[in-house]
Design brief:
Blueprint lengths: L2 H22 L5 H19 L5 H7 L4 H46 L2
């Protein structure tokens, strides 16, 4: 096994354990728990069996199997980033509405 494989396995196991602990402490929802556990299991599979990506790389016309994993990871990171930005925008709008409602309420409360 190569050093990169050891690192990938160690990282995947460590973060999987943290994901399990976070789920047990109710820091993440079941949906996120399943999503992240699936990601870490896939990383473990690719780390132990890197040749499993070869058929997919041949099908997609990519040179090496690991390139498929890297491209997929980049797309996944951008998808997650998009979801985070959407949620932050929603939270920002909700905070603006709450502050506006409080300001209007205080205005009418102080000026009958």
């Amino acid at each position: 096994m190569m050093i990169v494989q050891f690192l990938a396995v160690g990282l995947a196991i460590s973060v999987s354990l943290k994901t399990i602990f976070d789920f047990r402490k109710r820091k993440i929802s079941f949906k996120f728990f399943l999503f992240w556990m699936l990601i870490w299991i896939l990383i473990l599979i690719v780390a132990f069996l890197p040749q499993i990506t070869l058929p997919l790389s041949n099908f997609l016309g990519v040179g090496r199997g690991i390139d498929v994993a890297v491209y997929f990871s980049i797309v996944l990171i951008f998808f997650i980033l998009l979801e985070i930005v959407k949620k932050l925008t929603k939270i920002e709008k909700e905070i603006t509405n709450i502050v506006r409602d409080i300001a209007i309420h205080d205005l009418f409360k102080n000026n009958p």
